[in-house]
Amino acid sequence: QAPSLPSSPYGRCRSTLPSAGNEGSPKPNPRELAQQARWEEMLKARVEPYEKVISTYEEKLRHFDDQQGKLIEVLNNFDESEERCRELRTKLETVNAQHAAALQAQQELVRQAQHARASLEEQVHELRQEVSLRRAHEDSLQKRVALMENELSVVHHKVANMDSMEQEVANARKEADSSKEAHRRVQEEVDERSRDVAKLTEEICRLRQEHSREVSRARALTTEEQRKSEQSREDLCRVQDLLRDKTAEHALLLERMEQTALSASTTDGEAASYRAMLDKERAHRKELERRLQEQELKRLDGALEEHRQTIRELRQEVAAARTEVQEAQGRAAKMEEEAATAQREAALVRQQELEARQAVVGHESIKEEIAVATARIEELRSRIKAAQEDTRKVTEQYEKELEEHAQTQKAMASEREARQREAGDFKAEARRNQQRIEELQAEQELAARSLASAQEAADRCQDLQQQLQQAQDDCKKHHSSRNEIHGELQRMSSKFQEDAFAQDKRSEELSALLDDRNNEIKLLMYRVQELSSKYVPVKSDSTDVVLAKWVNGYRPAVPFFRLAAGMYLFGRRQVICKISNDKPVFRVGGGFIGFDSFLERFASEELERLLSYETDERTGEPKFVEAHRVRQMMEDTG
């Protein structure tokens, strides 16, 4: 602990002064007393802040001493906790070693079990694949058997059909024999009929001639009827055109009627408005009866008469339009009746034409039916022969396939029994493997639980280590903060002296800076005077004369200096100038640009370069001042 300081140095100083109550001492002078009081007040004012600072530091020292005691207790506790942690760590290491050994053994068992399980799963997978293949093979065989059974049923059906066809063929043979007998009889009848046919052919020739004459007459009649039908169609088209015209006229009449109705409604509205106006006028008639009796009443009567006349005319027009519409509707009905009669006549003509064509075709159809019947009989004979040959071949083929099918069924039955025995063995082995896998999973779960408990103990130990490390860090922070406070006391004592010295130095620097700023202002004034001076061209150089007009017109902040004919110094940039269409253009890069765009691109850049002037080491003035003097001398000498 720091030594206790006196509570007030002012009391110590006051004890050294002579006391006013001493009888033997001489009385002090009032001036000396006042001066002494002032000195005491000044001393008190100077000492009070130091007393406050010292008291605060004493409190801080006491606080840090208390904290140091607490830290010592905390360190002792941490030492005890470290000892307990060491014991726990040794126990944990032993437990971890035991659990690690057990875990390795369990892991080895798990690896063996997994390896055995993988091998068993592979065997099971292979067996399943074989079973699936056998099942697919059995399914394919069953499908093939079903197809063969279907084919067999189809063959039986075909055999039945062939039996029925053979029976029909036998019947047909009997019918053919009977037909031969009948044919012989028919042949005799045909011979008799041939004689009759010869007679009939003569009659047919005569009938054909007559029929040709009738056909020519019918054709003439049909052409005439076609001509009449075309004429009736044309008449119908005309009637339809007339109907369209009448419908259009009817629509126009309806529009006119609507317009007249609208005009009538408007006139009625106007009449109603005029009646309202008349009522108003009658209301005001008592006041204006003397002045407007002769003039206004005559005008109103005339207007009313005109409106009444227009209403009458409109009503007459509406009646006439209605009569016209009724007449048009009557004419349209007549035209529709005429069109219906024309259509009926055309239908009759078509029916007569069809009957004539059917009469011509009827004689030729009998011969065609006889030829078709003979061709059909020959076709049936050929089909019967082909069907007999096909049935013989099909029966032989199906007998062979049935024998093969019986052999394959026997082989499949034996193979199926062998596969079923193998599947039973595989299922028993799979059950044993499943029991072994369940036992290994139970052992694995026990090992996982023991590993989790060991992991929890390790986590608790790690938490204790973190707490110990945090307490050590806090102790280090407290020591460093105490050292910082001691250093801060020393810095505060030396800072006052440094501040006083820095204040004096700052005042000297400000005065020097003020002088520098004044010099810069003077130089900037010189520069502004130089920039604002008028550009004087060389009269013999036409490019310089045109450029001078543009420079004096724009007054750019950066001056132009003529170096040679067509070459100028713009700030610190050398440029080539030419005249194009009485305007100066400057070469920039690979082309030329105008005066205004040149200033927009380079004026601000060159102005910044000029304002960041360089000073001459010999004179301490900017370098452009000397250039300005040289330019002035050149202008003075011409």
UniProtKB/TrEMBL annotation:
InterPro entries the UniProt entry points to: GAR_dom_sf
Molecular function GO terms recorded: microtubule binding
Residues covered by region (Disordered): 1-33, 209-233, 401-434
SUPFAM superfamilies: GAS2 domain-like (SSF143575), Myosin rod fragments (SSF90257)
Coiled-coil portions: 71-130, 155-203
Keyword vocabulary terms for this entry: Coiled coil
Protein name per its UniProtKB record: GAR domain-containing protein
Source organism of the structure: Zooxanthella nutricula
Taxonomic lineage of the native organism: Eukaryota, Sar, Alveolata, Dinophyceae, Peridiniales
